[in-house]
Specification:
The protein is an alpha/beta fold. Helix content is about 45%, strand content about 5%. It is globular. The two termini are about 30 Å apart.
Length: about 475
């Protein structure tokens, strides 16, 4: 977006709808935090007639999944599950082999889970040079995967590089990460990825990652299990609320939805409420819920990975990341595999784990997923993190609200009180409210950062002023 703004052809202006994290993205009509910026939909190209200005879009590939794969397969599975696993192994190894093509050193992001470890094992089978692996650990976090990552690195025989990151380091590079991502991310996890990319670039120019496996092979257990239950309920004629969402949402979710609207200035609340209510209007009720949910996850991958958990944070350091699990040949094969083979009982990504049999140690192959977002402690702006957030509080002053004209300063003052609630460790609702308040404050700070970095004081304005007037 910076290039468009620097050209002078587009005037940067914040888009309130694009800043609402509770407004799900429609991949065909993406909302960015700035107005007049549009996204070419995934698997689509545009043609512009230079004489007439006519714009034509053409979709050249489909991620849609056939309805048949949502039908339960009765046990025993016989050889079918093993056959599917063999196809996955063949396609994944080819995807890895192709992504090893480079005239520069190639490394691996390693987490210690089945996804990145499987990619690493296939890299080793197709490499003759020493493989460098990279991982991150968050100092003070109770969910560190450091032990598992080291075990995987020893098994793979990589030259392993481990980056230990403190809270101070994360908060210190907070604004730098936002500058490159260009969209709010409401959590410090992308800053960790930003720092890891910086470290990896000291040793390699390309990294392979395990991202995408969860979307392709149904790795978010509770999320996809709910979608499968909704699919079966709809098949029996039962009612579902929304694709992939519980029919019995806790009362506090509706309350937090209502409270979140109060954060915005009065003139935006009705429009945002209306937009949220129409969020799922495009859902095809004839489509199995599990298909709709998985397709939406796949279509949104570029909006998440490419913005703040992948390409932009990596290319900030001139590091190229390649994602074998998002290879379209692999996906085209995987989307023909029955849901019963991907989510087998309580085991997520079952067919992928089957494909890794005799390639990975059993404790790695069968280990439960821990999301990257969850390996770091939650943000606590005015609590545990108050020493390191001090320099960012300038974005919470009254004048910052007046310049951006997005959020209500009075509502923010109430929100800040919610971050200081007593007994929040004992009462679930208060824990949820505390978490929501900190995420909302992160969103406000990032919005005001975007206002400063891209509108009030962007570097291209300074360069233009230094260059002086254009000669006639």
């Amino acid at each position: 977006m910076k290039a468009l703004f620097a050209s002078g052809l587009v005037e940067p202006k914040l888009s309130v709808a694009g800043l609402d994290p509770l407004l799900d993205q429609d991949p065909a009509n993406v909302r960015f935090p700035f107005e007049n910026i549009e996204h070419v939909p995934p698997a689509t190209y545009f043609e512009i007639d230079v004489d007439t200005g006519e714009l034509r879009s053409t979709r050249y590939w489909s991620h849609e999944i056939s309805f048949e794969v949502a039908e339960p397969v009765p046990e025993p599975f016989g050889d079918n599950a093993a056959d599917c696993a063999a196809v996955v192994l063949q396609e994944l190894e080819e995807a890895v082999r192709l992504r090893l093509r480079a005239d520069v050193p190639v490394g691996l992001y390693l987490s210690g889970g089945v996804d990145s470890s499987f990619v690493g094992a296939l890299m080793k089978r197709n490499l003759t040079s020493q493989l460098h692996s990279f991982s991150i650990s968050f100092v003070g976090s109770g969910r560190s995967e450091q032990e598992y990552t080291r075990q995987a690195a020893v098994f793979l025989g990589t030259e392993h590089h481990e980056l230990s990151v403190t809270r101070e380091m994360l908060w210190d590079r907070f604004e730098d990460c936002l500058w490159f991502s260009e969209v709010p991310f409401l959590t410090l996890a992308p800053v960790g990825k930003f720092l890891l990319s910086e470290e990896a670039r000291k040793h390699v120019t390309v990294v392979l990652t395990g991202e995408g496996a969860d979307e392709v092979f149904l790795g978010y257990r509770k999320f996809f299990q709910q979608a499968i239950r909704d699919t079966n309920r709809a098949r029996r004629g039962g009612e579902i609320r929304q694709p992939g969402r519980s029919t019995r949402a806790p009362f506090y979710k509706d309350l937090l939805q209502w409270l979140s609207l109060r954060l915005y200035r009065k003139e935006y609340r009705c429009k945002l409420a209306d937009a949220r209510s129409k969020n799922h209007a495009s859902y095809d009720p004839s489509k199995p819920v599990i298909n709709a949910v998985q397709e939406r996850r796949i279509a949104n991958m570029p909006l998440r990975i490419l913005c703040f958990l992948g390409d932009r944070t990596e290319m900030a350091h001139s590091l190229e990341a390649r994602l074998p699990f998002l290879d379209h040949h692999l996906y085209d094969k995987a989307k023909q595999i029955s849901v019963s083979f991907k989510m087998r009982g309580d085991l997520e990504k079952a067919v992928l784990r089957d494909a890794a049999k005799d390639i990975l140690p059993e404790d790695v192959r069968l280990r439960r997923k821990v999301g990257f977002m969850h390996t770091n402690a939650a943000e606590d702006f005015f609590g545990a993190d108050r020493l390191w957030t001090k320099k960012w509080r300038r974005y919470l002053r009254r004048d910052a609200f007046d310049r951006a004209q997005v959020f209500s300063y009075g509502s923010y003052c109430v929100l800040r009180l919610a971050t200081m609630l007593p007994f929040r460790d004992r009462i679930r609702f208060l824990r949820k409210l505390h978490h929501f308040a900190n995420r909302a404050i992160m969103g406000i700070v990032e919005t005001h950062m975007l206002q400063k970095l891209f509108i009030d004081d962007p570097p291209w304005k300074k360069r233009a002023a230094d260059a002086g007037p254009i000669p006639s």
